[in-house]
Amino acid sequence: MSEEWRDVVGYEGRYQVSSMGRVKSLERKVPKGDGERTVKERFLKPNVSYGGYLMVALYADGKRKMLKVHRLVCQAFHDNPDNKSDVNHINEDKADNRACNLEWCTRRENINHGTHNERSGKTRSKPVAQYTLDGELVKIWQSTKEIQRQAGFSQGNIC
Asked: Can you give the pTM of this predicted structure?
């Protein structure tokens, strides 16, 4: 797959983003004091946000803005006719910002995508041991929710 470059939406002529998820600053003249200087083309080094997403700092009119790389790629390479608000990483890898791995989605679609719910359930659930009145172990359940689904007991009756 060859790398294709397109202008970053809102930063045309200043920055470009590639189909491989890279961002570069274009060579251009910028004012400096009573003259101007040349800013050379260079690749931007992304930072990792608190949520694990790659971000770059883009400048326009003397103002700096931190933007998520996956949104820049999706805006440049994918139409959004339904005006969906979120960008989904199809393979669930937040660092894989290739255009072929991104798609527009709603917040609900993004939450329900892939293994998020399964992983979330596993981290929140606690195993529950079932004993006879004599103290013998009968079974270990994954969670109180599993007991409710399979055995029909209310979660409020389990301690």
From this structure: 0.71
